[in-house]
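Posted in: Protein Modeling Q&A

I'm a second-year student putting together a small comparison for a lab meeting, and my supervisor asked me to include a predicted structure for Chalcone/stilbene synthase C-terminal domain-containing protein. I've never done this before, so apologies if this is the wrong subforum. The sequence is pasted below exactly as I got it from our records. If anyone can share the structure token output, I'd also love a short note on what stands out.
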Amino acid sequence: MIDAFARALGLGDAQLEASRRSLAEVGNLSSASVLFLLEEALVQAPGTRGVLFAVGPGVTAECVLLEWR
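Accepted answer (user: helix_wrangler)
Welcome! Here is the predicted structure, written out as tokens:
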């Protein structure tokens, strides 16, 4: 699923490193992945933009556009 988002959004390996690391370290948390990675995402420099997304069972998906200030 991460690869599909990478292709669709034109993201590189560095931009998905936290997601891949989370999957390797704690496994698939489904939609709760957003909450697990949110703490790490909050320490970005002002002006940084990002997308936080998670895909759960069935057709559940959460997607948030972020901009740090």
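A couple of things worth pointing out for your meeting: The mean pLDDT is 84. The domain at 2-67 is CATH 3.40.47.10 (Peroxisomal Thiolase; Chain A, domain 1).
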